[in-house]
Amino acid sequence: MDSSSLKEMRRAAEKGLPLSTEAALKILRSEPGDLPEVMACASLARKNRFGDALSMCSIMNAKSGACSEDCAFCAQSSRHGTNASVSSMATAGQIESAYRKAAELPVSHFGVVTSGKALKDGDIDAVCDAALRKKLVRLNWCASLGCLDGDRLLALRKAGFKRFHHNLETAESYFPQICSTHSYALRLDTLRAAREAGMEVCSGGILGMGESMEQRVEFAESLSREQPDSIPLNFLVPVEGTRLESMEIMKPLDILRTIAVFRLMNPKSEIKICAGRIHLRDLQSMVFHAGATGIMLGDLLTVAGREPLKDLQMLEDLGFTLRS
Ligand code: SF4
Questions:
Q1: What per-residue string of b and e applies to 179-213 under the rule 16 or more CB within 10 Å gives b?
Q2: What is the largest CA-CA distance in the chain?
Q3: Rounded-to-10 torsion of CA 289, 45, 227, 112
Q4: Which residues contact 202 (CB under 8 A, 6 or more apart)?
Q5: 66 Cα: distance to centroid of ligand 1 (angstroms)
Q6: Rounded to whole angstroms, how far apart are CA atoms 116 and 129?
Q7: Ligand 1 centre and the CA of 17: distance in Å?
Q8: Which candidate, 62, 88, 61, 64, places its Cα nearest to that of 77?
Q9: In terms of pTM, does the model score above 0.85?
């Protein structure tokens, strides 16, 4: 990296200011020898804002598969011939059981996730019923139920949902290559409606879907404008039968540079590393020094996660504490 980009990166990290798109692009294109400096800045930005406490999430797939949408990466789209399971909506009792199981882990958020463009009203009632049950208060409730309108989002907040998750998925300029059945504008509207309904917002997406370096930076900038409370980053795990089944997997150093760029461009947001962490192989523990503030513990939506005890040992070995 040239000296002016390095200087800007250090200044942004020290002051907690968002990095420019030009400097971000230089990080994505930097040499392996620049990585220690990039990681030191990303780590400083994380530490200045969040200290050495990390937070973990756990999710349940409360309704799986049979989705009418055509998201290119998704095993749950009915347009793809995958082996992903198809299940009807979980009952309030099943959601409660999943919550209690998640609460045995040191996670701070429990996410209820459903497939489809938007969850139907009757099914939203089941989700609200579960959250309203007594004594289910240790974990923060998070919902990921598709493109809901203001009234439905308000009902979720009143039932106790603190956070709404809705990914932008990728850069606006690349979104038409990924999905043709709904618009980027609808995704943005949903995010904004969740915030207006009084919920925290969790929004990120998937890297390594064939987007250019410029589009990675464009995506990070879009998130920076929306200022989500939390940004989940996934790295494509190509699933056989989807349109992206043959996509090349991102290299470990590219993943670390990408996390650092999202951290430095979004200094106030949590960054959670979700699917695709496995692509880092032996470098998994470095995500925190690249600026991540947490990971997803346990299984992900359609792919198995790492054994939680292994992740907890990794965090202890790194000397981090956990936020509840
Ligand atoms: S990402 Fe969501 S909306 Fe898109 S196909 Fe998968 S389940 Fe459907």
A1: beebebeebbebbebbbebebbbbbbbbbbbbbeb
A2: 58
A3: 30
A4: 142, 144, 163, 164, 165, 166, 228, 229, 230, 231, 232, 272
A5: 9
A6: 20
A7: 34
A8: 64
A9: yes
- Strand 57-63 to strand 109-114: parallel, antiparallel, or no bridges (unpaired)? parallel
Place of tokens 């007594």: 134
Token digits of residue 255: 């993943």
pLDDT string in tens for the chain (324-residue length): 888 889 999 999 999 999 999 999 999 999 999 999 999 999 999 999 999 889 999 899 988 887 899 999 999 998 988 888 888 888 888 888 899 888 888 899 999 999 999 998 888 998 898 888 766 777 899 999 999 999 999 999 999 899 999 999 999 999 999 999 999 999 999 999 999 999 999 999 999 999 999 999 999 999 999 999 999 999 999 999 999 999 999 999 999 999 999 999 999 999 999 999 999 999 999 999 999 999 988 766 666 667 888 888 888 898 888 887
What angle in degrees, to the nearest 10, is found between the helix axes of 3-15 and 35-50? 20
Question: Quick one: which atom of ligand 1 is closest to the CA of 67?
Answer: 8
Residue 207 phi, psi (nearest 5): -105, 155
Per the document, the length of the chain is 324
- H-helix segments, 31-159: 35-50, 92-102, 121-132, 150-159
Domains recognised in the chain with CATH numbers = 18-316 (3.20.20.70)
Whether residue 118 contacts residue 153, with contact meaning beta carbons closer than 8 Å, is answered with no
Query: CB under 6 Å to ligand 1: residues?
Result: 67, 69, 71, 74, 76-77, 115-117
